[in-house]
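Hi X.,

You mentioned you wanted examples for the new student's onboarding notes, showing what a folding record looks like when two proteins sit in one file. Here is a clean example. The first protein comes first, with its sequence line followed by its C-alpha cells.
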Amino acid sequence: MTNDFIAVFVVVFVQVMVAIIFLRIILDWMVVLAGFQRNNPLYVVAHQLTEPMLGPIRGLMSKILPGALGMIDLSPIIAILLLQALAWLVNGNLRS
C-alpha cells in the first residue's frame, strides 16, 4: 500500500513537472517571438519551479560541451528524460 502511494506520487509529480517544463518552453518562446513579459506571474512561477532543475543541467552541459550548442538550450529535454527515467524506475521497482 505504501509503495503504491509512493509510486503514484512520483508518477504524478513527474507528470506535473513535465507539464510545467513544457509551459516554460512555450512561455520562453513567447518572450522571444511575441514580446511576452518576463515579469508575468505565470512566467515567474514556471521559472521558479523549473530553474532549480534546469539550471544545474544547463551548467553541466556547458562544461561538457562548451560552446557546441550555441543558443540551443537542451536542458528541458534532458530534464524531461531524467524525470521520465525516475518515474519508470520508481514505478517498476515499487509496484513489482
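Then the second protein repeats the pattern, sequence line and then C-alpha cells:
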Amino acid sequence: MAIRIIKHFGLKPQLLKLIEECFELIIAILRYLITGKGYANLLEEMADVQLVSDQIIAHFNESEYIYNMKHYKKERTLKYIESLKKQKT
C-alpha cells in the first residue's frame, strides 16, 4: 500500500507532506502538554507521520535498515537507563 501511494504522488510531494505532518504532530504534542486536551488528535497526527514515513521507507526499500536502527536505538536507550540506575546506587 505505501509504495502504491508514493508511486502515485511522487517522492518530493510526499517528503513535503512528511514535513507538514511532522509540524501538525508538533502542534498536537504542544497542545496536549499545555492543555491536557487533544489526546485523539495527538494519536491521529502520530498515525499520519507513521503513514507518510512508511511511504518514504518503502520508496527507498529500507525497511530492514529502519528496523535495525530502531532496534539499535532501543537497546542504546535501555543501556543508558541501566547506567543511570547504577549511578544512583
